[in-house]
């Protein structure tokens, strides 16, 4: 089901695709961008200090809405999601730049290239493989709905 | 024959009626009212401008050209600067419709400069029309040039082949005539203006990723496309999209130098006009 996109969103996504093809972010490749509004990114686990994810490969889904880039896209890890204190088992990610609103850190100047690099460095800086507190309860409560509907608390900057 | 104050008064009310029809989209009716007014006050430039604007909506380009000409003829004889600006604009549109892109460009340029000077909201519309005219002009010129260069290549290759002794090495592997590398390089250099490439990122907005039309600068010194930044400030938050420094709409300033630099760039890379239409 192809969404109808504003021409702004369409051109912007097209430009990002072109840019991505020319210089893909380190350790990442695009598995699918069909339709253009739904990307699947394959991410090689980063080396990092502790090599926690070094031998793993993850997949991310990025869904763009009509209001992109004013609204951030939906970004989730596909199962199996990395085991990380800021990533829930259903793939939802607690990272401020993925969300707009009061305490969100989204900016329309962010590109998907920058976003996946931030996610990769979030993995790289992890010191232990641990699920977020209340993971099972959270996943049972929100299921597969958009992570943007959750109320996120980002004050915990440490991993 | 000068019109009397009574004529002028009657013409004014006819013009008001015409404008009312115009804003309702009844362009033919508007034209009739303006025409009546013109018979009373033939020296009143705005009547020609308004009639031309209505004719433009109906795409009656002959009428548009005539009225634009009439308005411009009254420059120095009562036509305001706004009348003159719109006269150039209409004339530019009529020329473009008639395929006279080079002349269209000149008139649209004059109109745009005047509209920017006066900060008239019509400037964005004129800019789009100017971009279209430039793009069409480039398309036409570039197609003609590519054909001409193709013919030249063949002619040159044939001439060179004719000069070479027939030692069996002249024709290329597939039987076509080939030019020496230096000459091929030359043709490649000449084709640069006809090949669309990506504009440098300095000239594109980080939000729209397109070449700037109306760049504005924030207190952080970053430039954005005006409409995109204003939408961001309204819908996402009052901060600079890159630096996140808090800011408001009131702090947005036009980046005139960047705009001028882009226009220079577009002069040399005319395919870029297609992106700013």
From TrEMBL, chain A:
Record's protein name: UBC core domain-containing protein
Leader sequence segment: none
Pfam families for this protein: UQ_con
Residues spanning the membrane: none
Boundaries of every UBC core domain copy: 8-159
InterPro entries reported for this sequence: Ub_conjugating_enzyme, UBC, UBQ-conjugating_enzyme/RWD
Entries under SMART domains matching the protein: UBCc (SM00212)
Organism: Edaphochlamys debaryana
Automatic annotation (TrEMBL), chain B:
EC number: 2.3.2.27
Coiled-coil positions: none
GO biological process: cellular response to misfolded protein; positive regulation of proteolysis; proteasome-mediated ubiquitin-dependent protein catabolic process; protein polyubiquitination; protein quality control for misfolded or incompletely synthesized proteins
Domain of life where this protein originates: Eukaryota
TPR repeats by residue range: 11-44
UniProt key word Repeat: yes
InterPro entries associated with the record: CHIP_RING-Ubox (IPR045202), TPR-like_helical_dom_sf (IPR011990), TPR_rpt (IPR019734), Ubox_domain (IPR003613), Znf_RING/FYVE/PHD (IPR013083)
Record-level Gene Ontology MF annotations: protein-folding chaperone binding; ubiquitin protein ligase activity
PROSITE patterns: TPR, U_BOX
Keyword Repeat listed: yes
Record key words, sorted: Repeat, TPR repeat, Transferase, Ubl conjugation pathway
The reaction(s) this protein catalyses: S-ubiquitinyl-[E2 ubiquitin-conjugating enzyme]-L-cysteine + [acceptor protein]-L-lysine = [E2 ubiquitin-conjugating enzyme]-L-cysteine + N(6)-ubiquitinyl-[acceptor protein]-L-lysine
Gene Ontology cellular component annotations, sorted alphabetically: cytoplasm
Occurrences of domain U-box (ranges): 198-272
Protein name (database record): E3 ubiquitin-protein ligase CHIP
Organism the protein comes from: Edaphochlamys debaryana
Lineage: Eukaryota, Viridiplantae, Chlorophyta, core chlorophytes, Chlorophyceae
